[in-house]
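During the reporting period the student researcher (J.K.) took over the structure-prediction task from the postdoctoral fellow and processed the backlog of single-chain submissions. One of the processed entries is reproduced below for the supervisory committee.
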Amino acid sequence: MLKIEHVHRRSKRRLAALTACSLAFLRQRIVLMRIAFVGKGGNGKSTIAGTSARLLAREGQPVLALDVDTLPGLAFSVGLGGIPDAGLPEELAERQEGKGWVMRDEVSAETLVERYALAAPDGVRFLQLGKLPGQVRPGSTTAFRHVIESFRAPGWSVVGDLAAGTRQGFFGWAGFASMLAIVVEPTQAALLSARRLRRLAETMPGTRVGLVINKVRNDTRTRDIQAALQLPVWAEVPYDEEVADAERAGLAPIDAAPGSRSVAAIARLVLDLRNSDAEEPTA
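J.K. obtained the following structure tokens:
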């Protein structure tokens, strides 16, 4: 038993060292990221998005985390925990005859982020669309959409967690992203959902699209998913009980399980995407 525990501790130290090495390399090669994560509900996309934002912020650069999902998730995975509301004020927008909901005054997306985004660990700034039930308001939604469409602050990376399903992608909620990661579990049900999400690649010209296969227990289904979707696999994130425990407790995995295999895999994902020279969409 002592030997097994010793091996386990040594493995965790190696994983933590790998994550640290990835971050050290990234600091030497600064490339901004604008990435959106989308997928079926419950597949862990919020965990991957939040962990990615934290890792990027640890480089010392500003990172904006956009929670476009109307269900809770990203606030926990970036380390804010349960928050009542971090949406934008309703009075920022108004309904005008013949125009619908528009911004009340001329205010830049950068100013909105400076005024209203919450400060999360590692310097991440966090902004969310209202949550269901009751907090998705038209004025707040209009202002949030303004941020998504026009936030272009120099030197900032942007990480977005889209709502489960395809609707938001098709209606422009991922317009800030130059990369779109479809998060999929290695199951038949998840594959059916991912096939529908695959169409996002055709509606977002100029955007790189790839797969992040989460909660992997063996690589058999991984090969099937890649063959079925004909998209590059950017990362395979293993199922990790430590991360599952953190999620159940409402804790950020990067804080509760920093040496876990999942966090190490997400660190490699961030490193690979930042180190990639490919700029054209792959689908």
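The committee noted the following: The chain is about 40% helix and 20% strand.
J.K. will present the remaining backlog at the next meeting.
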